[in-house]
Design brief:
Number of helices of chain B: 16
Shape of chain A: elongated
Strand content of chain A: 5-15%
CATH class of the largest domain in chain A: Alpha Beta
Number of helices of chain A: 5
Shape of chain B: globular
Low-confidence stretches of chain B: 454-471
Largest sheet of chain B: none
CATH architecture of chain B: Up-down Bundle
Mean pLDDT of chain B: 88
CATH architecture of the largest domain in chain A: 2-Layer Sandwich
Distance between the termini of chain B: 10 Å
Number of strands of chain B: 0
Helix content of chain A: 40-55%
Largest sheet of chain A: 4 strands, antiparallel
Radius of gyration of chain B: 24 Å
Strand order of the largest sheet of chain A: 2-3-1-4
Oligomer: heterodimer
Order of helices and strands of chain B: HHHHHHHHHHHHHHHH
Helix content of chain B: 55-70%
Order of helices and strands of chain A: EHEHHHEHE
CATH class of chain B: Mainly Alpha
Amino acid sequence: MAKATKDVIYGLYNDEEVLMNAVKVANSKHLEIMEVFTPFPVHGLDPLLGFEESRLHIGGFIYGGLGTLTAFLGMTWIFTKDWPVIFGGKPYWSVPAFIPITFELTVLFAAIGMVVTFYIINGMGPGIKLPILDNRITDDKFCIAFDKSTVDASTAESFLKETGAEEIDSKII
Amino acid sequence: MSAPVSLIREPLVTGSKTYHQITEDLVSPTEKAPGTLWVMAFSVAAILATFGVFCIAWTIWFGIGSWNLNRTIGWGWDITNFVWWIGIGHAGTLISAILLLFRQKWRTGVNRAAEAMTIFAVMCAALFPGIHVGRAWVVFYFFPYPNTRGPLWPNFNSPLLWDLFAISTYFTVSLLFWYTGLVPDFATVRDRAKGIRKKIYHFLSFGWNGSAKHWQRWESISLVLAGLATPLVLSVHTIVSFDFATSVIPGWHTTIFPPYFVAGAIFSGFAMVLTLMIITRKILNLQDYITIAHIESMNKVILVTGTIVGVAYLTELFVAWYSGYVYEQFAFFNRALGPYWWSYFGMMFCNVISPQFFWSRKIRRNIVWTFFLSIVVNIGMWFERFVIIATTLARDYLPSSWSFYIPTWVEIGIFTGTIGIFFVLYLIFVRVAPVVAIAEVKSILKSSGDQYSGGHGHHHHHEETTSTENH
């Protein structure tokens, strides 16, 4: 599957506070930031970039509910319809005894579902290659990248310089 | 962001680190050839593990008759070891999940290794019921899959089956949580590596590139997984305690078991975390990341949970007396003064008396004392499980069927084998993955690093920052 390439201009900052400040400046100048890359989660950055709260946890709730139903209805069907057996004189449909497994499957489904969703929506997986602008982004560099087709390259460059980027470079990804 | 959280609170990262130094310190152990100490430790662990595998093969080949279990004592070292290992695993989840929910920043120094410990401990634990069932090759009958035997389903009303679900869920969720945390750090290793190492870490890091959106989702998923793992970890040892508590054996049939087992699990788990961390920080030179403050925090947890366990022991004794139920009373009389009296007193001393030393701040902050007491606690918690299981079974309702149990070399070999397997896995882990969560430590550096929180270092930003920085 061929992906459309992007011509990107980016700047590397040395500190997350400088980066946050730069994002604020970019917002006030209405420069459209393509992407920000950081070595660790920077708190307070999401609202500046206009990110809405992640909906992953809603997914988790739905997956968990699916687990609850699978376990509870599964055990109900098995012990009342498919193969009813009396254990210790208890009723076939002995709800309290179903609770532990129902709980465990709720957690199991929610966790597996969320993690799989996380990797799918990130476009990540074993052996997948995503564009890496600089090898030091996973070390100590904070990066702001602009798409040259939406932001004029010279405007972007002067913005990066003014806001304290240590290095500025272009790359086609 | 750089505002110190507290001027009184001890820094969690010492040595005036920069972000780059953190990467250097934490990734370099995976890049160098192993030292002599590592090779020696690995060899010992590998020998134990090999003998353990031999003993497991022996058991499967000749049957459970190669153990000294009998009609009276059906559960011996196997289930003792199973409960012991599962309990040890609990500290990892407590550190990574519960402390995340409580926003305890000191967890970042130890969570990665503690979670690894959880995963390896659960693997060791799961081995025991797997071979104890006798026919290990049909152990998959436990799982409710559509089969050609009817389909005949497992008994969903049985705590032993609940246990299977609890432990497989616990293992899976811990593994997912741990690996998702590792992905950004594998990316850090990848971006420094060359050649075949780069290829391997490229595969392991799933293409992580540090995008802000990915970080947001990563934090969201970490929080929800922590929220899921917290009730999960409590449920796991609760269900393990149901294996005993739902029976009608005097000494087992008690409602105090779930909280008592959970407290004991956290207690033993923290002891094992300390044993491991004290060795790891020394060998890998991580004293700036796993500080005395970390050790002291964990010692406080040991003190609290050890005391809870002590109260539970006394409550059990009181309730046995107060119940007026002669069989219950005998069960406890037998534990303390019967043929296994030494294991009861070992348990009392190691679990109730020894942690009381940690009331002293000096001892809490002393590495030699901590290391010694952590081993004592590990031994004590093993005794506790032995007391509950073998001692109680040895004297049942009928004096004609009373029995005594000592393990065979096969059982001892399997136990030492699991210790070997555990350390083999742990030692491989410290060679291939960053032992301390790199990204998480970086994220707390400005709020908890010594050069920012004052007191130990200068209050300035690291030398790489420029004059354009906004203070």
